[in-house]
Amino acid sequence: MSRSAAEERGIAVFDRFVARPGSGYIASGFALGWIIDLVERRRPERILEVGSGIGTITSAVLEARDRTGAGGLHVAVEDVPFCLEQFAANLGPRAAEVVVVPRAADVVAAVGHVAFDLVIVDGGDPDDLAPEERHTFTAEDRAAEVAAWVALVAPGGLVLVENTRAAQRRDLEAQTRRRYAHEHVRPADATPGLHLYWFEPSPARRAAAAARGAANRLWFPTGLRVARTLHRRITGRPMARRRAVASGQF
Question: What are the structural domains, with CATH classification, of the chain?
Answer without folding.
Answer: 3-249 (3.40.50.150)
